[in-house]
Design a protein that fits this description.
2 domains; binds magnesium ion; binds glyoxylic acid; TIM Barrel; 10 strands; eight-stranded parallel β-barrel; alpha/beta
């Protein structure tokens, strides 16, 4: 599965922005047909996206498209037309406002047929955006609905609208709003989503941070999200990518610590000792597992040269 720290959302109808996105450092480029595209630009967005997918040299960028909701006149045609014309370029389709497992079954079945008919030789993935009360209630079934699923994505703006939460700012993450709610307003929803995702081996992606000029706010929000177990975050502006990539990459201190823990574990195993000690303290298995995760991620990101073989 490709790395998904930063996902740059690019309006589908604005072809010029697609070219710029190509040279950004985002791990994933998501060409959007949904809410960044005005109603009368929907058909143009579809055509522009097909052209961009086919005619741009995307190098090793991971490419996804967000279709319109399945409860709109556009959603099914977005899927059909874009996947038929350019499915060979697509890593995944992002489905917004997923309310139930049925939404995933529908898209998955459509993709089965499109892949066969168009001789697409890889399996196009699905990313499910959880952004309604109904979607959150059904999140575990959604996460289990198809082997095509790659991630669950939290959609904060639509989720707020769905539950009728008070609109306070467009800061996008609620952490500046302790005057109206002590703690983080989205903690429950975010924890449910990350738990459902990880229970099924999926990755969890956080919504974008709305105020793209507020880098401190973005960083705070990403750090919090990362500490909850999320793997990445959408960006709505290229200026947000560096911060997001940095937060969702292990730091050198994380990597050094992981290496030390794994080395201590390997030695204990070699010497037939059950208990692992480091710096005079016992290390439990959970810490070893966490260290292994950090190490695996650093390897995927090319941040470590030689590797102490995987210990688990
Ligand atoms: C994203 O789609 C959101 O609603 O926040
Ligand atoms: Mg939304």
């Amino acid at each position: 599965m490709s790395i998904r720290r930063s996902i740059l959302s690019v309006p589908g109808h604005m072809g010029k922005m697609h070219g710029k996105a190509r040279t950004s450092h985002a791990d994933v480029i998501m060409l959007d047909m949904e809410d960044s595209v005005p109603f009368d630009g929907k058909l143009q967005a579809r055509e522009t996206i097909i052209r961009s997918l086919l005619e741009t040299d995307w190098g090793d960028k991971t490419l996804t498209v967000r279709i319109n909701g399945l409860d709109t006149p556009f959603g099914y045609r977005d899927l059909l037309e874009v996947a038929e014309a350019a499915g060979s370029k697509l890593n995944a389709v992002v489905i917004p406002k997923v309310h139930s497992a049925g939404d995933i079954h529908f898209v998955s079945r459509m993709l089965d047929g499109i892949e066969m008919n168009n001789r697409i030789d890889h399996s196009i993935g699905i990313e499910a955006s959880i952004e309604s009360a109904e979607g959150l209630e059904n999140v575990s079934e959604i996460a289990a609905a198809s082997p095509r699923l790659i991630s669950l994505v939290f959609g904060i703006a639509d989720f707020s609208a769905s539950i009728g939460a008070r609109l306070v700012s467009i800061s996008g993450h609620g952490e500046n709003e302790s005057d109206i709610y002590p703690g983080h307003r989205w903690h429950y929803a975010m924890s449910c989503i990350v738990t459902a995702a990880k229970a099924r081996g999926l990755i969890a992606i956080d919504s974008p941070y709305g105020n793209f000029r507020d880098m401190d706010g973005l960083s705070r929000s990403a750090v919090m999200t990362c500490s909850l177990g999320y793997d990445g975050k959408w960006a709505i502006h290229p200026d947000q990518i560096a911060t997001i990539n940095a937060v969702f990459s292990p730091s050198q201190a994380d990597i050094d610590l992981a290496q030390k823990v794994l080395e201590a574990y390997r030695q204990a195993k070699e010497e037939g000792r059950g208990a692992v000690a480091m710096d005079g303290r016992m290390i439990d298995n959970a810490t070893v597992r966490l260290a292994q995760r950090v190490w695996n991620q650093a390897e995927k990101l090319g941040m470590v040269a030689e590797h102490p073989s995987s210990v688990l």
